[in-house]
Design a protein that fits this description.
Structural class: alpha+beta
Shape: globular
Largest sheet: 4 strands, antiparallel
Number of strands: 10
Strand content: 15-25%
Number of helices: 8
Strand order of the largest sheet: 3-4-8-7
Radius of gyration: 20 Å
Order of helices and strands: HHHHEHHHEEEEEEEEHE
Distance between the termini: 30 Å
Length: about 300
Amino acid sequence: MAAGFVGSALAHPLNKRENALPPVNSTMDMNVVQLALYLEHLELSLYTGGYENFTDAQYTAAGFPPGFRENVGVIAQHEATHSATLSAILEKSGYTPVPTCSYQFPYNSPTSFVDLANMITTVGIGAYLGGGALLTDDPNLLTAASSILTVEARHDSYLRAGVGGSPFPTSFDTSLTAAFAYNLAQMFIVHCPMQLPIPIFPKLMLQSPMPPPNLQPPTAAGTPLKFTYDPSTFANKTMPDQQLYIGLVNMVTNVTYTPVTSCGANCAQIPVPEGAAGVAFAVLTTSCGDTEDQLSSSGTLAGPAEVVLS
């Protein structure tokens, strides 16, 4: 993407609206906005690459409709505007905005880019949903965050439709805690000049199944989900015979816990629970009853891992 293409998003009269920017009145508000900005920087780099790295002809050859690449560029413009606006909100209240990081994204084709963008944008949507509940000091700040959230959801629907998947696979989206959203972003971070004060958990890696390129058919209930992990990285050591669970965060059911069975050394397996759909987030734990907040604050052995079910 030409620098001027994204830059045009920053040339809009943000200064004329500066006085209308909502205040950041508490440390909690600041933490929520900083995480949102951290993720917006990530999405801006992702979508800029999706525009710059492939031509219109490559998108067309991969089966995407006319104008798809141009709309990827428009999404990048939106992310630039979101980043600039969140930065201005923080600066107006005397906070230093978190800077952009260096990123590495594992895609090599238009289709793999869009599949990855669906996963990353879903994390952003979950972070805005989870963070919105914490923005209680000024209703205008909640409105600003909500207005970004709805646009992010439109982006994701467009991407999903572009690969032939359902643009709205579930009745509810999945809320994420700050810790879970932040950890999901780490797999794409090469270096950050400034990290946020959020703990980083050991990794939980989904081994199978991988989602089909067009997100169809949905992964059926009972399908084995296999994860690998490294127990030497656990903050809290487990006993050899201790029962482990996968907590699956999905839609508004909070967390569904399923006992794991072994699928080999450092490999945990569960069946997809009944009713799970869309994108879920799996956490390895010794708990079988914690809320998502409790799980992310003290109950996580490894994770989360993102699981695209439909």
